[in-house]
Amino acid sequence: MSGFYHKHFLKLLDFTPAELNSLLQLAAKLKADKKSGKEEAKTHW
């Protein structure tokens, strides 16, 4: 996730296809973790 820290999502062209894929995978993991009750508290923001 460190690659997205402090990076604004203004438009799709700001990201490479690999970055978009990573972002979507991260979103799916976070959503699944939240649904299953495994969500981690934010400690570094």
UniProtKB/TrEMBL annotation:
Keywords: Transferase. Signal peptide: none annotated. One of its GO terms (molecular function) is ornithine carbamoyltransferase activity. The keyword Chaperone does not apply. It is an enzyme of class 2 (transferase). InterPro entries: Asp/Orn_carbamoylTrfase_sf. Coiled coil: none annotated. Its EC number is 2.1.3.3. This is Ornithine carbamoyltransferase 1. It comes from Escherichia coli. The lineage of its organism: Bacteria, Pseudomonadati, Pseudomonadota, Gammaproteobacteria, Enterobacterales. The gene is argI_1.
